[in-house]
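Thread amino acids onto this structure.
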């Protein structure tokens, strides 16, 4: 029976054998396209482009619901087989799920009725949650039920954002998109709390594990969910000292985790320092929001982009670089050029957060550095993702 299952798996084209392959590949490509289009529009290079709700609404929607959800899907569809001991989604079901994501990206550029565009966008996250939820339910894997809950909350935020687009209500659209972005932060804190210390332990050859702090992990996750819920509900749209205290608590929790996971040897391992620096941006994002709510800085945009570019983009790039190596049967040593990709991503975050307020050059530099970082990933990882594993395993 095992031989038959193996032969069936090997008959599937490599790109469709596990979720990380099509979604990491397409997510990285979309990261380049989405930021390239946004930068081109900002500088007047696409005068005839008018997506539903305007280009800003498209940008707000597509970064969490297009780019981030692709990578999240790829990671979770791959990780769930380790969590449950069951095969991950592959073959035709994986193709169909991927096509739902792809159709939503293409739909923005077609002259569709508003209702059809909204339906196309709203389909992917509930389907992904259903696929993962059924796999977890079969083995009663309760530990990971919160992951499915976050996906459903993201789907609700997306529906809120899409209603804002359909009704020309910028406030609703913004609340939904930003609420989803902070839900991505919650997911990053949940998954990051598992993989960053584990990867660090393995990467530096540490003999003793980091001391477990389950209360810290769940408090950080709960705090992140509160921030996302408040944002989606429109609470804290105006500076509030009470909300500032919540963001300050989140900052301290993230900082405590970073200190707990630190080992000076990480700075010798690009796959590790890229993860730790990206997580540090999550702490800086909550600190920036705390300062804004306390009235100490004038805009929240820098904090939002510290989250979107530094934390989300940084953790995504670092994670897909490592996961792709492990799941294609390769040693956990990335191509040398990926060091430049990690550096460029940090430059993109620094430019967007610090330089953009001073000069439009900062925005250009951030966009170019982001695009270059993901181009380097595609240059070296695309062949790994569409070819079979080097060790002959059918995954």
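Threaded sequence (395 positions):
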């Amino acid at each position: 029976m095992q031989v038959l299952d193996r032969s069936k798996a090997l008959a599937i084209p490599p790109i469709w054998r596990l979720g990380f392959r099509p979604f990491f590949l397409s997510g990285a490509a979309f990261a380049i396209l989405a930021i390239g289009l946004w930068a081109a529009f900002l500088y007047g290079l696409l005068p005839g482009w008018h997506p539903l709700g305007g280009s800003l609404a498209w940008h707000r929607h597509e970064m969490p619901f297009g780019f981030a959800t692709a990578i999240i899907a790829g990671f979770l569809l791959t990780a769930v087989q380790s969590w449950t001991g069951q095969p991950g989604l592959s073959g035709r079901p994986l193709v169909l799920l991927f096509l739902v994501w792809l159709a939503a990206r293409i739909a923005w550029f077609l002259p569709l009725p508003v209702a059809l565009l909204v339906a196309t966008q709203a389909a992917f996250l509930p389907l992904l949650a259903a696929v993962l939820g059924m796999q977890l339910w079969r083995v009663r894997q309760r530990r990971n039920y919160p992951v499915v809950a976050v996906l459903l909350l993201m789907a609700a935020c997306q529906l809120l954002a899409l209603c804002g687009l359909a009704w020309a209500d910028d406030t609703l659209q913004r609340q939904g998109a930003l609420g989803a972005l902070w839900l991505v932060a919650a997911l990053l804190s949940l998954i990051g709390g598992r993989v960053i210390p584990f990867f660090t332990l393995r990467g530096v050859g540490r003999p003793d594990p980091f001391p477990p702090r389950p209360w810290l992990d769940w408090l950080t996750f709960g705090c992140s969910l509160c921030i996302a819920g408040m944002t989606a509900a429109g609470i804290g749209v105006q500076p509030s000292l009470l909300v500032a205290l919540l963001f300050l608590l989140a900052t301290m929790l993230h900082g405590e985790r970073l200190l707990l996971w630190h080992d000076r040897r990480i700075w010798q391992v690009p796959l590790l320092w890229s993860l730790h620096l990206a997580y540090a941006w999550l702490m800086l994002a909550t600190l920036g929001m705390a300062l804004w709510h306390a009235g100490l800085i004038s805009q929240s945009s820098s904090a939002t982009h510290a989250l979107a570019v530094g934390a989300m983009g940084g953790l995504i790039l670092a994670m897909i670089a490592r996961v792709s190596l492990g799941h294609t049967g390769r040693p956990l040593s990335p191509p040398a050029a990926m060091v430049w990709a990690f550096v460029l991503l940090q430059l993109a975050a620094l430019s967007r957060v610090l330089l953009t307020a001073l000069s439009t050059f900062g925005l250009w530099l951030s966009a170019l550095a982001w695009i270059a970082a993901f181009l380097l990933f595609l240059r070296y990882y695309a062949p790994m993702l569409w070819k079979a594993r080097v060790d002959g395993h059918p995954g």
